[in-house]
Structure formats: C-alpha cells, structure tokens
Amino acid sequence: MAHQEPDRVPCWCGASEEFWAKMKRELSLEDEPLRQFLGDDFRRVFSSFEPSAKIVACAQEAAGDEEITHITHFGVPRTGLGYGQPISHPFADATRDEIESFPWPSGEEVQVDDILQGAQSYGGRYAILGGKWSPYWHDLIDLFGMETIFFKMYDEPELVDLVARRVVDFYHEASRRIFDAAGSAIDIFFIGNDFGSQRGPLVDEATFRRFLLPPLERLIRLGHDYDLPVMLHCCGGIAELLPVLIEVELDAIHALQPCCESMSPSQLKSEFGDRIVLNGGIDSHHVLIEGTVDDVRRATREVLETMMPGGGFIAGASHDTILEETPVENVVAMFETIRQYGSYGR
C-alpha cells in the first residue's frame, strides 16, 4: 500500500463456493490449511445481518409465487444460483413518499460482536479485510431495475439521490460500528461495486461523477477516518475511471481484468501503478479455465514481470470468484509460480 518493494509480492485468492469446495475435495484440505497451502496473504472478517420481518414481508409480497433463494438487505427477492437474479424491482415505479416510507434497514442492526475475536485469531500473520461490502450500485440496480435506473438518472435524479443516500447510510453506519468494535485488528476496508463492462464503464464519466462517485467518496473518507486504506473490488473495463478513483484517494483496485478494453497490465502499470495499488491481472476468464498448466505458468510470469517493479501490486486472478469449471491444477500452478517468481530478491 506504500508503493514500496516488499520482500515478495503479496498473494490474493478469491474463489466461488463451488470451486472452493472442489479444491478442498481434490487436495484433501480444509479451509485454513488450503489457504496456507496456496499462500493467500489475506483473511476476511464478516458482520452478520438478518433482514427485518417487514423487509422479508415486502420481498415475499413482491415475489408472489416465485421461489426466493435470497433476500437483499433492502428487500429485493432474488432466485437462482448463488445470490440469484432479482424477481422484482421494488422502486421501479415508486413515488418519493413510497420510498421515504419504506422499512429501511439500520446499520445498528448489523451484528459486530464477534469480529474483533475473529480478526485477532489470525495472530497478525495476514492482512485482515473488513467493513461492510457496500455494493450500493448493485442495490440501486436491484431496487430500480437496470434500464430504469439509467432513465431515472436523467428523469428523476433527486429520486436516485434519495435512494443512494439511504442505501449508503446503512453501509456507512454498519462499517462505522465494525471499525469501532474491531478497527484496531482490521488492515483494509474492502468494498465492492462493479462499474465496468467488457467494453468499458457502464456510465460515462460525467454520470459517474454525478451519481456514483459521491457515495464512494463518502465510504473512502470513512475508511481513512479510521486510518484504513480502502480497496475497491470493481469488475470490467474501468481504465477510464481510474483517474477519478485516484482523485478521491482510493488506495487499491481489485481485480484487474486484462481481457476487458483498455485493461492491459502494462498500460495500467505505466499509467497508474505509482498512484493506486493494482490487484489481480492473471486471466481467469480464458487462461485459468482453458489453458494448460504451462500456459498458466507463462501468463503468471508475464504479469509478475510487468506489475511487480516498484511495489504497489498484489498478485491474483482477474476475478475474485474463480469459477467451478476451472481446473484445480491450474490454480495451484498460478500460486506456485507466484511463490517461485514473486521475490524481489532481498
């Protein structure tokens, strides 16, 4: 985070639940021994939250007869694999009064009692990621619907501001309580919002500055108030937005996707590597899934050679959810190669 060369490049491992279960089976290792085997330098601590009865009731009414597999913090019913897809969008046609009277959750309802003990259980051996994930952009999409939110930004911008504020009020208060309870044992405030597509940002810079940057800046300030660097998980082609993110003092960006437009590791390192920590870049879209072990080793070495000089780089896959169809031997090869060639020679 200080943009200095350490003894070796840090390693990051993120995986889908399905891939993680497959890797545990194939390698006959449990969670923590597996992370140690791979050389993961990060651990994450979580708060817990249960939607109120009123929010659950709203979700059930909106879902009708469809099966609900997940309810978001803000009462959006979802169905399908993982967190699923929204069944309905509660605010698609909502008035300001209906939004104001919605049973908004409070950050006070987030349970933080066990976080300090969980963070301290690692004995200072890893960088601890904490704070509320805070995917406010995804929540706005869920609440309004993706097409509708784009129209609302032009037709009813104050309504979008209202919902964004209420959403981020929840996350801000939840993370504040987490940091009050366990900030001394947390090293990085880790949040996530996907602002990019395969071909570039989902909105232009002016729209991003108007609607999506102020909530992010508010969360960054919160982290910095507790002397925590802030790392943002952000998928897609976001090179155009990196100067804006640096402007509001974001400390790190995760996980770089080299297959997206304008996201080549060499370009990112050259333009931004001394101003923001770059995390990821080893292609999990094609190479890890379709390549041979030799392909993985070669691609990993290329990324290391490009990104390591000067520090400010964390090595890992180009997405935090390595998919189930990824061969375990390829992921093992990636981490072996990071260990073998990730030394700064000190």
The CATH class label is: Alpha Beta
Helicity range of the residues? 40-55%
Work out the oligomeric state of the chains in this entry.
single chain
**Uncertain segments:** none
Return the average pLDDT rounded to an integer. Answer: 96
List the strand order in the largest sheet. 1-5-6-9-10-11-12
Largest sheet: 7 strands, parallel
The sequence of SSEs as H and E is HHEHEEEHHEHHHEEEHEHEHEHHEH
Distance between the termini: 19 Å
In the CATH hierarchy, the third-tier topology is known as TIM Barrel
- Structural class call reads alpha/beta
- Our Rg estimate from Cα atoms comes to 20 Å
The helix count comes to 14
Topology:
Layout: H1 17-27, H2 31-38, E1 42-44, H3 53-63, E2 70-71, E3 77-79, E4 85-86, H4 96-100, H5 115-120, E5 127-130, H6 136-144, H7 146-155, H8 157-182, E6 188-192, E7 196-197, E8 200-201, H9 205-225, E9 230-233, H10 242-247, E10 252-256, H11 265-272, E11 277-280, H12 287-290, H13 293-307, E12 313-314, H14 328-341
Parallel strand pairs: 1-5, 5-6, 6-9, 9-10, 10-11, 11-12
Antiparallel strand pairs: 2-3, 3-4, 7-8
Helix pairs in contact: 6-7, 6-8, 7-8, 8-9, 13-14
Considering the chains and any ligands shown, give keywords for the structure.
single chain; 346 residues; alpha/beta; TIM Barrel; seven-stranded parallel beta sheet; 14 helices
Overview of this structure, please?
This protein has 346 residues and is of the alpha/beta class. It has one domain: TIM Barrel. Helices cover 45% and strands 11% of the residues. The protein has helices at residues 17-27, 31-38, 53-63, 96-100, 115-120, 136-144, 146-155, 157-182, 205-225, 242-247, 265-272, 287-290, 293-307, 328-341; strands at residues 42-44, 70-71, 77-79, 85-86, 127-130, 188-192, 196-197, 200-201, 230-233, 252-256, 277-280, 313-314. It has a seven-stranded parallel beta sheet. Strands 2-3-4 form a three-stranded antiparallel beta sheet. Helix 6 packs across helix 7 (146-155). It is globular. The mean pLDDT is 96.
